[in-house]
Amino acid sequence: MTQIVYLRDSVSPQFDANTFVRSRTGVAGLGQLTEFAVPITATLPFESWDHRLSFSVTPTLLFTGDPLTNAVSAHQFGTVAVNGARPWGYHHYYTQGVGLSLNYVNRWFAADVGSSPLGFPITNVVGGLEFAPRLTRNLGLRISGGRRMVTDSELSYAGERDPGTGKLWGGVTRLFGHGALEWSARGWNAYAGGGFAYLGGTNVIGNTETEAGAGGSATVWQDHDRQWLRVGLDLMYFGYKRNAYFFTWGQGGYFSPRQYFGAMVPVEWSGHNRRWTWFLRGEAGYQYYHSNAAPYFPTSAQLQGQADGSPPSYYGDSGASGLAGNMRGRLVYQLDHRLRIGLEGGYSRAGSWSETSGMWMAHYTLDGQ
Predict the structure, then answer these.
(1) How high is the mean pLDDT of the chain?
(2) Structural domain total, the chain
(3) Which of 120, 178, 199, 308 lies 20 to 30 A from 234 at CA?
């Protein structure tokens, strides 16, 4: 059954309709975020499955709290600390829009172009390229680059309207380049790579990021090509020039420590049996991060001068170390040769936040039979 389904997928048009929800912890109206999205994708393979062209439409809603209902959070939002909140028709409870994306993929090249959701306060053009040629039988090179939205918060993803001036800020994009070498052999693989990124947005202080990582995994148990158990090790580092993880004017609302080090041990179980396919991955390890102090208004000396005094107008430095972990699982059922449905869920805890996500999936193959 599985082989027949994969063969049909390789030569037939397909449709995917998913429902995605994620919830990120934080202060209501600031870092707290709930996202609800319905990505709908049509895929057209041509010249067999070596080439695929797909188009996606993604209605998206973002929900957060109102920072103005609390004096502490209000002081840390926009220019309220200096200008107060004025009647600018301000609505902060939710924002909505529709994202668009056009994708092309073949065996060693992928490209996409699209937009962050149209209807958000700030909309950006996004896209990317990836090259993944084989250098030898076992060694591959992966080079990628592009412009992506930073989705840590409503401020970084959609942008906000300042209650003190009525002006927009936020909508942070990440312009990045990344390269890695990947070694794969029967039963195990390894990788090492790194990259650089520039982050900026509307009325947001510019920032840079460097990152590096290395690791690998090996199959420790296998059951007749039906089930696999893999264990690995991932080492990671990233760091930002500035700490922009705040929500006053000029800040970006995204996690940006000066240094972050992590070492994770993933365990992965996957397999298939008749109409069922599953995947379960859990990883746990150690993290250390440190974030620098930051001014309330990094893009305006005038606002910062007005804010200096009491209460404090600087965010203090911070950091932590300890356990971190992630879990992700997927279960898919093949109803017939055309339709399969599935569920996916995940939980992540890293840095100073945690995130829970879930998705319902439906995949339909239009094979004309």
Answers:
(1) 92
(2) 1
(3) 199
